[in-house]
Design a protein that fits this description.
By secondary structure, the chain is of the alpha/beta class. The chain contains 9 helices and 10 strands. Helix content is 34%, strand content 25%.
Length: 257
């Protein structure tokens, strides 16, 4: 595995009682890239993410991260290596402030998240870093706001900040713009681009305009197998990809540039 390749799967497969959800997937993710996984509903994208984060064991195949075989590691081991997953399900505490949410994530990274008996003042050293992370996702003006009061798009930005607090080497973003209006989609897309500096991002995304604007490389899954892999211009003109997306409301394959 080359030094430039941070994550590699070989013949990765997952079967559920005879149904093949992920089928012999060979994928390489380059260090420092934003790599998008796209495909119609039921293509196996979320199952593939679940294999990478160890929420599911593979039926066959292997996963290597930084050259190390992590196929049979437990989820916590893999997370400690710096593979951190975010999005799809809101992962913030609604009745804590925005700042407290980021601080809680920083505590988790320090391994002190269960020290509830510690005095509040012992957490002050984390405030500065928490505020830096909020600034990174343009939430500095919302620090004292209760999270439950945040608009949807801002909640997703907060999830991005709490993910960054764990100092991931590889961020897995699961449908980061799902359910958003245009304005929030644009904001979150720009935030992903901003926080990708010095990091590697692997994202499952249904919005082709988002993928076209920020992904360095795109892998297309259909029925659990890769049907195309490459830069957007190449993938979007692939006849198999166009056929796979025909009849899908959200293709944007022609209009996204």
């Amino acid at each position: 595995m080359s030094a430039e390749c941070i994550l590699e799967t070989q013949s990765l497969s997952k079967e559920f009682k005879g149904f093949v959800a992920v089928n012999q997937v060979d994928m390489k993710v380059q260090r420092g890239h934003i790599h998008a996984i796209i495909g119609p509903n039921g293509a196996g994208k979320t199952t593939f993410f679940n294999l990478l984060t160890k929420f599911l064991p593979p039926s066959s195949g292997s996963i290597r991260f930084n050259g190390v075989d992590i196929t049979h590691e437990k989820p916590a081991q893999t997370a400690r290596r710096g593979i951190v997953r975010s999005f799809q399900i809101s992962a913030v505490f609604p009745h804590m402030t925005v700042l407290e949410n980021v601080r809680a994530a920083l505590q988790r990274n320090l391994g002190t998240s269960f020290h509830f008996w510690k005095a509040e003042r012992t957490l002050h050293p984390l405030h500065e870093r928490a505020r830096e992370l909020l600034a990174a996702v343009d939430l500095q003006d919302f620090a004292e706001e209760l999270t439950v009061n945040l608009p949807y798009g801002r909640k997703r930005a907060l999830e991005l900040a709490t993910t960054l607090a764990l100092e991931p080497e590889l961020m897995l973003l699961d449908e980061p713009t799902q359910g958003m209006g245009h304005e929030d989609v644009d904001r979150v897309t720009q935030l992903i681009k901003k926080v990708s500096a010095g990091r590697t991002i692997l994202m499952v995304e249904h919005n082709m305009n988002v993928v076209a604007s920020i992904a360095d490389r795109i892998t297309v899954l259909q029925r659990g197998a890769i049907i195309a892999d490459g830069p957007y211009a190449e993938v979007s003109s692939n006849p198999q990809v166009i056929e796979a997306y025909m009849g899908s409301v959200d293709t944007g394959l022609e209009g996204a540039h």
